[in-house]
Each structure stands twice: as C-alpha cells, then as structure tokens.
C-alpha cells in the first residue's frame, strides 16, 4: 500500500512516449480484433433465392413467363395491324385523289362535247376498285385489332391474378428469409461476444490484478480495445431500443467505477496524513490520539516543556519492553506484535522488532 505513495515519476518526454505507444498499441489491438470479428461475421447467412424456390411453385412461375411472352406477341400483332392500317389509309387517299382527277378530266371532255374515252373509263374503274378494296381491308384490320385488344385484355387479367398469387408466395418467402436473417444475426452476435467478452474480462482482471505493475499500459490497452469491440458488436447487432438500456447501464457502471476510484484515492491521502501525524506524535513522545505525554520508561519522571520532555540526570539506557496504554484516552499505544511477541508501536504500520506489516 505504502509504495503507491512514492512512485517515482519518469521524465515527461518518456512518459509522453509511453502514453503515445500505449495509444498506438490500443489501436492495433482494436485493428486485430476487428479482423477476427469480421471473419466471424463472414459466415454464410440464409440464401433468399433458395428460400424463394422452396415457396414459389415452378409451374406458376412458368405460367407467368408464358403469359408475359403472349402479351408481348399480341402487342406486336396489334402494332403490325396499325401499321397496315396506316398504309391502307395512304392508298385510300391516293385512290380518292385519282378519282377526283379522272372525274375532272371526264367532265371537261363532256363539256367539250366529246365522249369520255375508254382509257379514262377504265382508269376510273380501277381507281374505284382500289379504293373499295383498301376500305374493306382497313375495316378487316379494324376487326383484327378489336379481337387482339380483347385477347390482350384477357392476358392482362390473367397476369394480374397470377401476380397476386405470386406476391403471396413471395411475401411468405420474404417473411421466412427475414426470420432466418434475424436468427443468423443473433448467432453471429453471440459468437462475436463469446469471442470478445472473455478477452474483456481477462483484460479487466489483469488491470485489477497487476495494479502498480510497470507493464500496466499493456493491460489497459487490451482493456480499452476489448471494451470498444464489445461496444461495437452490441451497437451493430442489438436492437436500438434494447441497446439504449445496455448503453445507460454500461455508462452507469463506468461512472460508478470512476467514482469509487475517486473516492478511494481521495481517502488515501488522509491515510498518509494520519500516518504522518502518528509518526510525529511517537517521535515527540505524545499520544497520537489525544496529545497527552507518553509517560513510559525513562520518560516517567521527565518534565514536559513546550519543546518536549526534559530528562533528569542520566539518559535513558534501558529499553522499555512493557505494554503501554494512554492514561488520558485509553488508546493502546504500545502492544505485543502478533508475529514476534515483542512490544511495538501499535499505531505505526510496521513492527519495530520483526518488520511485519500490521
Ligand atoms: Zn491518549
Ligand atoms: Zn514483530
């Protein structure tokens, strides 16, 4: 206990270097631990595709694919018919223009008193028949488009219903995947904690056990690093509302530890001053408790002045070996050592005969 009072201090550059190296060591410990924890975290988790395969029937998927292909086909055919209609419209317009032109020519020749030629009549006939044919074809394309539109509508309905079915299957597999994911995460978290918590406890034990050792920075580095890793694992894996309790409990624990330490170290100087007072009191032959003179041995007849006892005549040659209790306050000031049996000062830490710490 007493050696902690007079711990020799190293020169400050050396202390600074030790502090810096300890910090670096802590960082490297953290680095090493995170490598190891990452390896644990790389363990394979649940496979979504496999789960989906188990839940969604193959024939349903095939059916959905077929329907999608059919829909594409129908839409292509509708587009083709619309293109055909565009062409037909163009040829109807051409025929119409030709008819007007021919009719104009015929009127002119009739007005001129002539008769429409056979060529004109034939051209007229041709243009008319082209027009009617195009119109018929346009109509039939219209009918085809109507049929195709019906077909498309039906396919879309089938797709909607099969999509609804598939969505149910997918929801089920998503739920199962989420469950599997959660339990996998929990497993990983437990593995990580099983790995790092014992290290934390070991480091804490070393810090406590090796108090006062010059190699303490190693233990502190390990303690800080493992503590940080435990904290990170909990932060990553525990639900936030649960974590807040863990965090506040840990904060209370750390604060409590610091407070205990502060109280203890503030109590320690009091012990030191107490010891100093006892030492001085024994030196001055006065009771450390009540300051009454210790009337013992050669000092039994001494005269007590302000500067201490004044002896009559001869100096004290014999050593006193009897027990002594302060007659003023009743404090046992000299008593037998529990170890060697010699009489020694009870209020000082070591036996003056055998040196045993009391
Ligand atoms: Zn006393
Ligand atoms: Zn002793």
Write out key terms for the chains shown.
Helix Hairpins, three-stranded antiparallel beta sheet, two-stranded antiparallel ribbon, 358 residues, disordered N terminus, binds zinc ion, mainly alpha
What can be said about this structure in brief?
The chain has 358 residues and is mainly alpha-helical. It has helices at 12-41, 48-55, 58-111, 118-209, 216-237, 240-283, and strands spanning 303-305, 308-310, 324-325, 332-336, 343-345.
Characterize the structure shown.
This protein has a domain at 1-202: Helix Hairpins, CATH 1.10.287. It is built from 6 helices and 5 strands, in the order ααααααβββββ. Helix 1 (12-41) crosses helix 4 (118-209), helix 2 (48-55) crosses helix 4 (118-209) and helix 4 (118-209) packs antiparallel against helix 5. Mean pLDDT is 87; it is low at 1-7. The strands form 2 sheets. Strands 3-4-5 form a 3-stranded antiparallel sheet, with no helix packed on it. The protein has 358 residues and is mainly alpha-helical. Strand 1 and strand 2 (308-310) form a beta hairpin. The chain starts with 11 loop residues before the first helix and ends in a 13-residue tail after the last strand. The protein binds zinc ion (2 copies).
